[in-house]
Design brief:
mainly alpha; 4 helices; single chain; elongated
Length: about 70
């Protein structure tokens, strides 16, 4: 079903779907790195949170925002 959906799309349409998702992902990572650098973290060290945010796409930054930032 998903394959049929993407087979019917033009290249430009696929780019218009993917680009906002990539921008959102990068914005989340920048926000998290800013918080890590300026406010500090809890539960793990800054290095561990930075690795999680960098290596675990989408869920890493969300996990940091829920569990890792200082209140």
């Amino acid at each position: 079903m998903i394959q049929e959906f993407f087979n019917n799309l033009e290249t430009l349409e696929i780019v218009l779907i993917i680009v906002p998702l990539v921008v959102l992902e990068l914005a989340l990572k920048v926000l998290c790195f800013s918080i890590i650098g300026n406010r500090g973290v809890r539960n793990l060290t800054e290095l561990w949170w930075a690795a999680i945010v960098l290596l675990v796409n989408t869920l890493g930054p969300i996990a940091f925002l829920i569990f890792g930032r200082k209140e």
